């Protein structure tokens, strides 16, 4: 009779999960610091623009008002929160606190960004929440900085020994935070230096013609509508609307909220497409039709009228 195979200890089994979750959240944070549009309220894919959209679709929309009104502070809080959670998870530093932060962030993303994703398992945020919950329940393992810093301590239940462990963790946190801030600053500098080469989601406000609401609806001068791509208008509620020239010489107006998960889309003038910054769906501005998913439904259309060189959109 053959001997049973050797089983790996749970601490080793959790290492791939820790590595994946930590690297993903660190990458997400650095991506936000690198993207000059994330904290630019005039950019279609910015934190402010997405929050304005999610207020209409999220079950916690009533609580998103302060985040929208103080977009810079909350945007930085999200980015630094992801960075802290990612580093804590990878290093095993303040393990349960990092896991709790990961659960909180993932649930927040699920109730806002992913809430309208259908079916729900297309959105990864709920899966991240349960994955972080697993790490939190497991707690620190011997393959963590928490265990390494506690090594040599006689009894962590004693106040003096417990105080030494806390001081060691605080020192490690300070060193890690300093390195993280340098990395975030470097990513932010790269994002600013690459502003001229940035993605269509982060074009300067002059790159996409815009219009303001009027009593009869939205309006824009015909001369401001590009031959390819689209002109961006802003409705009174803050939602984007895009106007494009059609192949038959007419005009088309469609909504600017992605039908997949409710993110505000932006315009890629070079490719002549409307692009969702959240999950990559693309739409044809001349018809609102889906070109690439995961979105399945086209963007809604609005009637337009043309008079005296001005196009007006009637959006109820």
From TrEMBL:
Keyword Disulfide bond attached: yes
Residue spans crossing the bilayer: 12-30, 71-90, 97-115
This protein's UniProt keywords: 2Fe-2S, Disulfide bond, Iron, Iron-sulfur, Membrane, Metal-binding, Transmembrane, Transmembrane helix
Stored Gene3D superfamilies: Rieske [2Fe-2S] iron-sulphur domain
Keyword Protein biosynthesis on entry: no
Chain segments carrying region Disordered: 188-213
InterPro entries: DoxD, Rieske_2Fe-2S, Rieske_2Fe-2S_sf, Rieske_Fe-S_prot_C
Chain ranges of the Rieske domain: 218-313
Pfam families tied to this protein: DoxD, Rieske
Name of the protein in its database record: Rieske domain-containing protein
